[in-house]
Amino acid sequence: MVSQIIDRTTSDQFNMLSVLNQEGKVINPDLMPKLKQEQLRDLMKKMVFTRIWDQRAISLNRQGRLGLWAPVSGQEACMIGSEAALLKEDFILGSYRDIPQIVWHGLPLYQSFLYSRGHQHGGQIPKDVHVLMPQIIIGAQIIQAAGVALGFKLRKKRNVAIAYIGDGGTSQGDFYEGINFAGAYHAPAIFFVQNNQYAISVPIKKQTAADTLAQKASAAGIKGIQVDGMDVLAVYKAVSNAAEQARNGEGPTLIEAITYRYGPHTMAGDDPSRYRNSKEEEEWKAKDPLIRFRKFLTEKGLWSEAEEYQVVEEAKLTIAEGIKKADETAQMTIPNLIDSMFETTPEHLEEQKREFLHTEDQ
Amino acid sequence: MPQMTMIQAINDALAIELENDENVLVFGEDVGHNGGVFRATEGLQKRFGEDRVFDTPLAESGIGGLAIGLGLQDFRPVAEVQFFGFVFEVIDSIAAQASRMRYRSGGRYHSPITFRAPFGGGVKTPELHAESLEGLMMQTPGLKVVIPSNPYDAKGLLISAIRDNDPVIFLEHMKLYRSFRGEVPEGEYTVPIGKANIVREGQDVTIITYGAMVHTSLKAAEEIEKKKGVKAEVIDLRTISPIDIDTILASIQKTNRAIVVQEAQKTSGVAAEVIAQINEKALLHLEAPVLRVAPPDTVYPFAMIEDHWLPSPSKVVEAIQRVLDF
């Protein structure tokens, strides 16, 4: 009886936004973002580069030449499409898997490698790059994004803060607090959920009773939208719309992008075969963001095998150079660490630094 | 010189810094129109506007995240945690985020945040309002922890905290808010973070303490002087992280005896740290072990027994007697 009175689901309002189907055909021409040919090609170049980068990073990790790496293959449309829709002064707050957005927003690649290896220089973001170091704690960046966004509003800047989170992250209290704060302050924020179906091993169905993650926006009174996260044009469209609204003072948007990670959670021992089967993986790979966008561009005469080969070779070279530069960076020291705790190192820490160096000398 | 309560001195410090620096923002639950549950922010929203002094939704973790984000935008947030017992709700922002911002970014970013919070026993609050949780904070690298004991220090230390480019936990003992007035100069002045204050001179024994226990210790010192002629020196730490060990050592070299009085439970707190440092640096100056006067290792008790649980002047006197008799 109760179910007749209270309609539990509100997911009807959250139909998935998509532009391209799996064959690369435009199925919603009205939603086609207005992009120049060069911008379209650039999206493809970055996705191909990122796929190669992911493969290299996995291999470098296995060789012990890279530390933390959370594989990104499958999620390129989410990452590249969303970042491309931002302005340089827009601020990115990502988590450990969101390295591609941070790098495409301006962090030099070699610094991302240093971050992965656990070197402090990895977090020394250049002054003109508007990103925060990747967040390890799930959800902490969501509430910080509300603050960055409120800062833009108070400074009267037409910029947005975008926070990235996974499906599991939407269960955190900080997720609700962040979207609620941003809503209450009408702050220019975008909360971009990459729903890749699993929080390490826990499937989305066990994460929440909500039919969509996008509908969680309703409780905070902000806009919510679900988008095909394997469709780079749909992601671009969703984020550029949300950004435009935020810049115009129309408040935050929660975007749920439906996607899939092909690889393990991280390279630190996760084995996806323990929680998902290869049939499911193949179904998702049929939706691959690169394949469908490649078809779309090729049909328009904007992409060729030769160009793809060139991007692959460029990527391999750039990654090799980045690793070389990371290798050449001076080792971080304990005094570096001690001196980075406070603006002015207090006397007791100076003393501990002296003690440390003294013991090292022994 | 004007006489002020500690809450007035805090309000004065906030107003001065809001006036001095347009990047200072004051926010928290009920701090706007209502002026804070203790009126610490009384009149500030009216004077400085809703963009500078504002209410937040009722979520402490959100307040912490908001402060960090605003700090990244070059604001200087003064965030209120309505009672420090609620800090467990915002511990990630304080201890895992703000405190590590400078380290994590190799100095590129920092968190110039002051987290203000009332705390402290003896005022019959509900559970999780009175707790002395400063020990949790002092064990977190990257934080400074300040606990004033009087209106003058509260104003000068709060101005220092707001101007500090690293996160400062500023704890305001509720019992001291309105229990007495003290001389507070008009206009701006600072009391340095990390410097203790000798509030009573003496050569027989050193009492190291902070917060409301400064007053308990002063009562004990007067009592034992009156009864036994013992002259106790009382050191108000004012900042518990970092601890001003030099002031403590200089006193112990004179008195050769010490006790530490704290309102927090006995184990692993300020007293334990002070004694460890004395052990490392002044053991041979001591004529007796350094004792702790502190409540037992229980949760902070319900209101009806809190006065028995908290250290009293007579317990302090007893400890002084024991180190003198050793």
Automatic annotation (TrEMBL), chain A:
Keyword terms of this UniProt record: Oxidoreductase, Pyruvate, Thiamine pyrophosphate
EC numbers for this chain: 1.2.4.1
Domain annotation Dehydrogenase E1 component: ranges: 44-332
UniProt KW Oxidoreductase keyword: yes
Catalytic reaction list: N(6)-[(R)-lipoyl]-L-lysyl-[protein] + pyruvate + H(+) = N(6)-[(R)-S(8)-acetyldihydrolipoyl]-L-lysyl-[protein] + CO2
Cofactor(s), by name: thiamine diphosphate
Pfam families listed in its UniProt record: E1_dh
GO molecular function: pyruvate dehydrogenase (acetyl-transferring) activity
Quaternary organization: Heterodimer of an alpha and a beta chain.
Physiological role: The pyruvate dehydrogenase complex catalyzes the overall conversion of pyruvate to acetyl-CoA and CO(2). It contains multiple copies of three enzymatic components: pyruvate dehydrogenase (E1), dihydrolipoamide acetyltransferase (E2) and lipoamide dehydrogenase (E3).
PANTHER family (alphabetical): 2-OXOISOVALERATE DEHYDROGENASE SUBUNIT ALPHA, MITOCHONDRIAL
Name by which UniProt lists this protein: Pyruvate dehydrogenase E1 component subunit alpha
Provenance organism: Ammoniphilus resinae
UniProtKB/TrEMBL annotation, chain B:
EC number per UniProt: 1.2.4.1
Cofactors named for this entry: thiamine diphosphate
Gene3D superfamilies named in the record: 3.40.50.920, 3.40.50.970
Residue intervals of the Transketolase-like pyrimidine-binding domain: 4-179
UniProt-listed Pfam families: Transket_pyr, Transketolase_C
Entry coiled-coil feature ranges: none
Matching SUPFAM superfamilies: Thiamin diphosphate-binding fold (THDP-binding) (SSF52518), TK C-terminal domain-like (SSF52922)
Keywords: Oxidoreductase, Pyruvate, Thiamine pyrophosphate
GO molecular function terms listed in the Swiss-Prot or TrEMBL record: pyruvate dehydrogenase (acetyl-transferring) activity
Key word Oxidoreductase present: yes
Protein name per UniProt: Pyruvate dehydrogenase E1 component beta subunit
Species assigned in the record: Ammoniphilus resinae
